[in-house]
Amino acid sequence: EVRLVESGGGLVKPGGSLRLSCAASGFTFSSAWMSWVRQAPGKGLEWVGLIKSKAYGETKDYAAPVKGRFTFSRDDSKTTLYLQMDSLKTEDTAVYYCIHGSGWYDHWGQGTLVTVSS
Amino acid sequence: EIVLTQSPGTLSLSPGERATLSCRASQSINSNSLAWYQQKPGQAPRLLFYDTSIRATGIPDRFSGSGSGTDFTLTISRLEPEDLAVFYCQHYGNSITFGGGTKVEI
Questions:
Q1: Residue B74: enclosing H or E segment and its boundaries?
Q2: Could you read off the pLDDT of B37-64 as tens digits, one per residue?
Q3: Are the beta carbons of B44 and A97 separated by less than 8 Å?
Q4: How far is the C-alpha of B57 from the C-alpha of B40, rounded, in Å?
Q5: Which helix (H) or strand (E) holds B102?
């Protein structure tokens, strides 16, 4: 069974940083392309980006609103995905979902809430 | 980037009725790379369909996906109370975009 468990969310001030983790199990993590999607409170879904597997150079693709501020990484030995968020803005407030896949998304984590507020 | 427009914003129906949800793309989605998701209150989205009409595992056959080009439809043939949710369409071609969602009230 595929399982994705996000952690690391919380309250942070504008301009601050936060690192999210996503512990993965139930599939071959090292060969998986992984994605992040976020959802602001009461709003729709927004693609954040993806990180490819090591075999594809761990290439990253970022959505325009987060490019230059967010960084994806992965530790295949720990089957864990990371999202480093810097220079946070109030508009980054959202539930962040970790997802197995890069096209359609058949496995989602439960999400972790990031609140950016002074 | 392809923009997806979903309509209506909210659909209020009774159990047993048929629900028709629309997703219109700003340009043709040639490879039918369109998915549908259901998000119930307080839950993560669940995949319903990919490649326009391929049903995901465990999705009841009263749900169906159809369409091509710029116009796509999710149909729920007979609504059940547990279908209360927001439904999103998604394009996953060269870029990934989501529609704004349709809320189904029962």
A1: strand B63-76
A2: 999 999 999 999 999 999 999 999 999 9
A3: yes
A4: 17
A5: strand B102-105
